[in-house]
Each structure stands twice: as structure tokens, then as C-alpha cells.
Amino acid sequence: YGISTFVYQNVKPFEKAKFEEFVFQNWPKEVIRAKGLFWIIENPNVAYIFEQSGKQKTATDDGDWIAAFPEEDRKEILAMNPDVAAEWDPVYGDRINKLVFIGRKMDKEGIIRALDNCISDKTI
What we know:
Number of helices: 4
Oligomer: single chain
Strand content: 25-35%
Number of strands: 5
Largest sheet: 5 strands, antiparallel
Low-confidence stretches: none
Strand order of the largest sheet: 1-5-2-3-4
Radius of gyration: 15 Å
Helix content: 25-40%
């Protein structure tokens, strides 16, 4: 049936306006379902959950990234969660854009390029 899946992953933040333009104006019609975590430079402490099914698209606040916690709390959490500590980025911590796409005859490289174009030029 030509259905495939792939995961887009990048630790750098999206720029809100660019990501919204992709989601609401340039969304590939071949994508049947998408879901995952993302973050934006305008609000770098918040983890968002993105969900898309058909024409419905939502982004909800999932709380703060561990990297945004006070240092003492962060150290305690990482000590209790070695899997999170092992994937910790020295600049961004646990912040990540990780979106799973399911679709029919998707242009994977085109979607990756479009999402890479949503990455902010600013740093935290």
C-alpha cells in the first residue's frame, strides 16, 4: 500500500512562526499520522506534544524539560534515570524535536528539509 514511517529528530529548537507555517500551510497531504515531542525557542523550558491525524493537528504543553529544572533537582532526576542521562545533550539537555511520521508515499527528504527550515537561528 506504500505506507511507511520515519522519525525526524533534532535537538535544536524550532522557531514558532516557521513551525506553524509548516503545520498549517505546508503540511504534506501524504502524512496520515504524526506524533511526538518538540520545543520552540520562544518558550525553551516547555516540552510540547504534537499530534496530527488527518486534518486535525494539536500541540499541547507537556510540562517543563528536565533541563529547565533547578540544578539540584535535575541532578537527582538524572541520577535516578541513567537512560535520560546517557542521551543528555551538553547544550540542550533533554530538549529534543522527535516526531514520528506515518504516511503513504511520503517525501521523507522533503519533510526533513521542511522541518530543518523550522529550526531557529537563535540559541538559548
